[in-house]
Specification:
Order of helices and strands: HEHEEHEHHEHEHHE
GO cellular component, one term: plasma membrane
Strand content: 15-25%
Distance between the termini: 14 Å
Bound molecules: guanosine-5'-triphosphate, magnesium ion
Keywords: Cell membrane, GTP-binding, Lipoprotein, Membrane, Methylation, Nucleotide-binding, Prenylation
Organism: Bactrocera dorsalis
Number of domains: 2
Oligomer: single chain
Family: Belongs to the small GTPase superfamily. Di-Ras family.
Structural class: alpha/beta
Subcellular location: Cell membrane
Length: 242
């Protein structure tokens, strides 16, 4: 579900005092906001569309900025995974700062066929570190080498080089292909698994989810507390795609 009208609601007030590190930390809310950054044409939109809709298109349509929402269930609560697909070309610095400030997790995408696209992530990673301050170590960030389906002749960045860059930055790493659907769900799942302040994870176990739904129905028909009541599972919440 693309929600292109959402951007107007954001106000840049929080970025004005960017020297105060605490200001850059987003509030805890029912939304879990993931921001996808990377140079033009590396496959940001393709990864998001593959994940949200299961589709892939060969034609290249540059993005201005799109926000997608996916309803996920967090055991006893429904929450929203909000994915911001940013532009790869000439993003306004204020827009980038706002996305970073509001983001709970980040995906930094380059194309394995372009060393330049990996280099272009450097200033973005620096901005994330500057705005998040020391708390950046607790924020899920994944470096992603996309287009790993491409032939070895076209490759400019080896898997080892990508991994080495991620290690140097202290973040996680994965190679993906939006085209062949390699590691796409795993990317989002891993990212949520890395969240430390609230324990969220994507579970794509449809059978289990159906079983939970069935059990809920039985409980409710027995007069038990509905699912949005206080849970017995304790602090750990597992989230799952609905
Ligand atoms: N071979 C291959 N091509 C891909 C892959 N992902 C994307 N592409 C192609 O790369 C081109 C750019 O993809 P987009 O997803 O639009 O790139 P983007 O990063 O969103 O670009 P901007 O919106 O301009 O920043 C398109 O022609 C896609 O078909 C992939 O995994 N493998
Ligand atoms: Mg795009």
């Amino acid at each position: 579900m693309a929600d292109k009208g959402d951007k107007g609601k954001e106000t840049p007030k929080n970025t004005e005092q960017k020297n105060q590190v605490t200001r850059a930390m987003p509030e805890q809310s029912n939304d879990y906001r993931v921001v996808v950054f990377g140079a033009g044409g590396v496959g940001k939109s393709s990864l998001v569309l593959r994940f949200i809709r299961g589709t892939f298109r060969e034609t290249y349509i540059p993005t201005i900025e799109d926000t997608y929402r996916q309803v996920i269930s967090c055991n006893k609560n429904i929450c929203t995974l909000q994915i911001t697909d940013t532009t790869g070309s000439h993003q306004f610095p204020a827009m980038q700062r706002l996305s970073i400030t509001k983001g709970h997790a980040f995906i930094l995408v380059y194309s394995v066929c372009s060393k330049q696209s990996l280099e272009e992530l450097r200033p973005i990673w620096q901005n994330i570190k500057d705005l998040k301050g020391p708390d950046v170590v607790n924020i899920p960030v994944m470096l992603v080498g996309n287009k790993n389906d491409e032939s070895t002749e076209l490759r400019e960045v080896t898997q080892a080089e990508g991994q080495a860059q991620a290690t140097a930055w202290g973040i996680s790493f994965m190679e993906t292909s939006a085209k062949t659907n390699h590691n796409v769900t795993e990317l989002f799942q891993e990212l949520l698994n890395m969240e430390k302040s609230r324990i969220v994870s994507l579970q794509l176990d449809v059978k289990k989810h159906k079983k939970q739904k069935k059990e809920k129905k039985v409980k409710e028909s027995n007069g038990a507390i509905p699912e949005n009541g206080e849970g017995a599972a304790g602090a750990k919440e597992k989230c799952q795609l609905m």
